[in-house]
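Contributing new records

If you add data, match the layout below exactly. Sequence lines come first and carry their own label; structure lines follow with theirs. Keep one chain per record. Anything else will be rejected by the validation script.
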Amino acid sequence: MKIVIYGLTITSSWGNGHATTYRSLARALAAQGHKIHFIEKDVEWYRNNRDLPEPPFCTVQFYDEWHSSSKTLLQSSKDADVIVIGSYFSDAVMLTQELLARDCGPLLFYDIDTPVTLSRLRKARKTEYLEAESIPLYDAYLSFTGGPSLRALEEEFGSPYAVPLYCSVDVNTYKPTETREAFRCDLSYLGTYSKDRQPKLMKLLGGAADQMFNRKFLVAGAQYPEDTVWAPNIGRIIHVSPPEHPAFYSSSRFTLNLTRDDMVAAGYSPSVRLFEASACGAAILSDKWMGMEQFLLPGEEVLLPDDAYDIKSILNGMSDQERINIGRRARERILTEHSAEHRAQEFEAIVEHVSQKRPSRDASITSAKEEMQKAGFTAASSS
């Protein structure tokens, strides 16, 4: 297949979790013989921090502004076997209208931020990248989040097919490796600053550091406020590039996984970091959320401390062998169920399903296009 993906970014992993997700999926799909064409807006932040400017497994097309580039971009989609529009793609709303007007498809929406999206849709019926009225027009809604959110997408917002396509991990890249002195610590955390994660980070890792001056802690990630007060035994690294992630996780005795509030509330929302750390054999301490056992078994493959005192007890009381066993079991679970190859197979099955169902959706799509035309939209309106 020729697969065209319009996404936030695949070339820069700075300050986002989208890039590594797209990379692992695109690489696995390319290995199956598919041709991947990725389109992203040439945003200054990502342009200045590109750690994979020319992915070997797909072609990348950049553009500056939609109105001056739409003809060229849409031409790239003309002969596509399937088109994917990702959350936080800057011009997703206009792009969706253009593709529907031109009968391009199957058209899939890939939401890497489902709980955030649902929260905003319930408040305002739209986000900067998705309008509620467009959801029934996508042949499928691929979601980073499973569980009740899928039912909400179908029953509340009319998706004809809401299906999980969780993040995954490239197991050829993410695996146990030699430790590095710069990353050695008792407890690490890798993640971009997030306002709603920060209190948990300071409570758990920060609280443990305050109690354990003889232990070394490490926080890696960009965009943390300059006035953040870190304990003396908490090291800071601004950015760890994806090729260095395996060494980062392999060098930590334990690593911490934290989840944004919307994801916790929705449940069934594993982060890509959870899978990547597991694939490296890391012993993970995580916050709690509904559905965790669907991905890692608490107490056996992941540990769920309530507070800094629990973390202190784990760091001081758990033997190295027990810690290693937890990481080993987590790695086995991820390799069995959540590799990029698994996601590529799931993606292929989704495309086959919607392709078979697509003829029966022609009437509803035609009706929707008529409504769009009544509203004054035509395919040439933004060309």
